[in-house]
Amino acid sequence: xxxxxxxxxxxxxxxxxxxxxxxxxxxxxxxxxxxxxxxxxxxxxxxxxxxxxxxxxxxxxxxxxxxxxxxxxxxxxxxxxxxxxxxxxxxxxxxxxxxxxxxxxxxxxxxxxxxxxxxxxxxxxxxxxxxxxxxxxxxxxxxxxxxxxxxxxxxxxxxxxxxxxxxxxxx
Length: 171
Known about the structure:
The protein is of the alpha+beta class. It has helices at residues 9-18, 33-39, 44-65, 123-137, 141-151, 163-166, and strands spanning 2-7, 20-21, 26-29, 74-79, 85-86, 100-103, 107-108, 112-117, 156-158. It contains 6 helices and 9 strands; from the N terminus they run E-H-E-E-H-H-E-E-E-E-E-H-H-E-H.
């Protein structure tokens, strides 16, 4: 199963340093039955993009909680055995939990398929979105518009061999 793990650049750096993602069960996003039903598509590429987008929003939440982290969303795409990831059946259609799975961790970073990171030109919008997130969660339409502005930026795809450069440890 392909899962998408939300991180920040410091989180990616830590995973690179330890060689592992997650110390125990950790949250990721995947194509779940609830996500399929919500998205109303059978196209696996569209569904995986939706799961990636959910992980990008979760990364934004991590940024909102860590004001010191560089303002770039980070998502690691990772393949795990189906039995290693499980969705909560009671929250399948909960809008806040669409696509959410728990991965029995840790998982070796070497199993990552790719890394997705915001470009530098997204930083201003991502910064504004992280600041607006609590207000948007409270139902403020203007704040939600600001959060949606970050989603307008596509995450860039990076090969796993590029992780050292992404975390500032390239030679």
